[in-house]
Design a protein that fits this description.
Layout: H1 7-35, H2 37-65, H3 70-92, H4 94-123, H5 130-148, H6 157-186
Length: 187
């Protein structure tokens, strides 16, 4: 067997090393977001604002390019303008946007918790169903914590949840990348 590396092997090693590097950056970003959750939350609000603007523009373009009826076009334009103005408002007032997103998060978690508790009662005889009840109760408690302290919970809620998500995503990606690196060493 030749000692020269083939292009596929070189690419695989390079890809795994980049994945490890990006995983470490994601872990660091998650860690700093947990340290400064307000800034993480503002970042999420700005991202949502831009996503709404892009969506609004897309709706407006679709309204003019589609072959819909006049009524369909009017509704498409109205939806596009609603997205566009909401996105611009969030970008111009990110703290108010963060407060609104936090309130929506509390409402979402409340309904998710209710549905998980209901789902538990529908499948309670199955093995492990108690975990669904546990998840529902924890979700309801989290919703209550966010709702009960709103709007001050805007300072920590979204940034903390995003930071935890980035931290866990970074660690899982890092573990997968290190596993892939061990497999590549065998070749």
């Amino acid at each position: 067997m030749s000692n020269t590396a083939n292009p596929v092997s070189t690419l695989a090693h390079s890809t795994v090393n980049w994945s490890i590097f990006l995983s470490i950056l994601l872990i660091l970003a998650g860690f700093f977001t947990l340290l400064l959750p307000f800034f993480g939350g503002i970042g999420v609000a700005i991202f949502v604002g831009w996503a709404l603007i892009v969506s609004g523009i897309t709706h407006l373009v679709f309204a003019w390019k589609s072959h819909a009826s006049t009524g369909g076009r009017i509704w498409e334009v109205l939806v596009g303008l609603a997205y566009l103005f909401t996105g611009i408002y969030i970008l111009l007032h990110p703290v108010a946007g963060l407060a609104s997103l936090t309130l929506l998060l509390a409402i979402y978690l409340f309904f998710e918790g209710i549905f998980e508790v209901i789902a538990f009662f529908q499948i309670r005889s199955r093995q492990g169903a108690v975990w669904l009840l546990f998840d529902g109760i924890v979700t309801l408690i989290l919703a209550w914590m966010i709702w009960g302290h709103w709007p001050s919970s805007s300072v920590w809620a979204i940034g903390t949840l995003v930071g935890i998500s980035m931290l866990f995503s970074g660690f899982s990606r890092l573990m997968l990348s290190l596993g892939a690196k061990r497999v590549l060493k065998a070749f």
